[in-house]
Automatic annotation (TrEMBL):
The keyword Glycosyltransferase applies. The lineage of its organism: Eukaryota, Viridiplantae, Streptophyta, Embryophyta, Tracheophyta. Its EC number is 2.4.1.-. It comes from Sorghum bicolor (Sorghum). One of its GO terms (molecular function) is UDP-glucosyltransferase activity. This is Glycosyltransferase. Keywords: Glycosyltransferase, Transferase.
Length: 487
């Protein structure tokens, strides 16, 4: 059956013009989807856009990308936001700096009220907030009569987990202790209606302790998201048909808001990558011969594990491009690529067939390069969708957070394979270089894995093409903005 006739994005430009305020959080994994949605809307010129910018940023990469966004899109308004004082180091010693930034934003969130009400410019007709801020931003938007949508930066399966976890905890708590809010009850396996059972071992590690800062944030946000006006999710129907159907049909939580699957999101601006050392090096390699290795912008592995990865890449015999991180925050990453980090003589032995860099790399450009044949990744959701769009098989090695949930989609969606038994953050054992090398070599030569990834790439291209499922979802979102915009 042919899809229903819809207007093009350009034809939607009639009547009152919505003013959409984007409220992103911290961490490149959260910011990149915001930047890409903003660029997509700005390119069609159907809404006015402002972006709340929290300064200073946590990482240098964040600062660079904000600067690039406003330089490339001069019509997008910048609204600087100043956090209230918060002694995070004494109140939450040793916590992840990105989680602390989320908490600082939540504590300052009441300051969004005058911004949304128009104190800094034209009245806002809709807000698009990061999911980490929903428990505070949604009530403010509702009080002001403003639409509030959530840009969910992980997969639809993870969205179903976020929505259902408070219900799951309440059921457990009521059964064990009478009515309550889940305090003191272990999470256990979560059987999400209509989606799948998520074993406790797949959950973000902080959720195993209900007293953790992250867990309290997660549960608060999960309770509030039912009151959003809609969800933008960086996925596509062919990748997560089961989870998307369960959310849209109210199987996960009755009366769940509309879910707009608009992925895979892509950068609209072309970054200057031609001639950069990684791309120039890739240009010299045979087709599908290079293993690209990267574990995200905020995921560092131990020095001992780094040496095992190095040994594994060497043992695989494959060419490789490895983007290496040794700290969570890039500004703190001062370690040199020496024998102390990579192992004695490693760089000399792999010279010519391997390139190791600590510089920021345009991952989309790398994955689209003809020489790349495999992506060894932490399975952060941006990385998963970029691999899916490029049709490059992904070898998933989850490191923490939502990565194991994402890895279930890597397998079910045909993006790649998951080494479920490999360690992740907090586990005190190493994956050996011998095992890494063997698996890399095996997946690189697996024609069936490559064929599935290629088909997923074709489905991704169909989704974002004119008339595709993600294209139509973006149209519906824009129509919703305009329908609720006062003249």
């Amino acid at each position: 059956m042919a899809p229903p006739a819809t207007k093009s994005l350009g034809e939607l430009d009639g009547g009152a013009r919505p003013h959409v305020m984007f409220i992103p959080s911290a961490g490149m994994g959260h910011l990149l989807p915001f930047f890409r949605v903003i660029a997509a809307l700005a390119a069609h010129d159907v809404v006015d856009i402002s972006v709340v910018t929290v300064l200073p940023t946590v990482s240098a990469a964040e600062a660079d990308h904000f600067a690039s966004l406003f330089a490339a899109l001069p019509r997008v308004s910048r609204v600087d936001f100043h956090l209230l004082p918060f002694d995070a180091s004494s109140e939450f010693p040793g916590h992840d700096p990105f989680l602390l930034r989320w908490e600082a934003l939540r504590r300052s969130a009441h300051l969004f009220r005058p911004l949304i009400a128009g104190a800094a410019g034209p009245r806002v007709s809709a807000v698009v907030t990061d999911v980490t801020l929903t428990s505070h931003v949604i009530p403010i938007a509702k009080e002001l009569g403003v639409q509030c949508h959530v840009l969910f930066v992980s997969c639809a399966t993870m969205l179903s987990l976020a929505a259902y976890t408070p219900v799951h905890l309440d059921k457990k708590n009521k059964g064990e202790h009478g009515p309550g809010v889940g305090v003191g009850v272990g999470v256990g396996d979560v059987d999400i209606p209509g989606v799948r059972r998520i074993p406790q071992s797949y959950l973000p590690q902080p959720l195993l302790d209900l007293n953790k800062l992250f867990t309290k944030q997660f549960i608060d946000n999960g309770r509030e998201i039912i009151n959003a006006d809609g969800f933008l999710v960086n996925t596509f129907d062919a990748l997560e048909p089961v989870a998307l159907a369960a959310l849209r049909d109210g199987k996960v939580v009755a009366g769940f808001p509309p879910v707009y699957a608009i992925g895979p999101l892509r950068s609209k601006e072309e970054e200057a990558t031609t001639g950069s050392p990684p791309v120039a090096w890739l240009d010299e390699q045979p087709a599908r011969s290079v293993v690209y290795v990267a574990f995200g912008n905020r995921n560092a592995v131990s020095l001992e594990q780094i040496r095992e990865i190095a040994a594994g890449l060497e043992a695989s015999g494959c060419r490789f491009l490895w983007v290496l991180k040794t700290t969570t925050v890039d500004r703190d990453d001062t370690a040199e690529l020496t024998d102390d980090v990579l192992g004695e003589g490693f760089l000399e032995r792999v010279q010519g067939r391997g390139l190791v860099t600590k510089a920021w790399v345009d991952q989309e450009a790398v994955l689209k390069h003809a020489s790349v044949g495999l992506f060894l990744s932490h399975s952060g959701w941006n990385s998963v969708t970029e691999a899916a769009a490029a049709g490059v098989p992904l070898l998933a090695w989850p490191r923490g957070g939502d990565h194991r949930v994402n890895a279930t989609v890597v397998v079910s969606g045909g993006v790649g394979v998951w080494m479920e038994q490999w360690s992740w953050d907090g586990e005190d054992w190493l994956v050996t270089g011998e095992e890494i090398g063997k698996k890399v070599k095996e997946v690189m030569s697996d024609a069936a894995v490559r064929a599935r990834a290629t088909r997923t790439g074709e489905e991704a291209a169909k989704a974002v093409a004119e008339g595709g499922t993600s294209y139509r979802s973006m149209q519906k979102f824009i129509s919703s903005l305009k329908a609720h915009c006062s003249p």
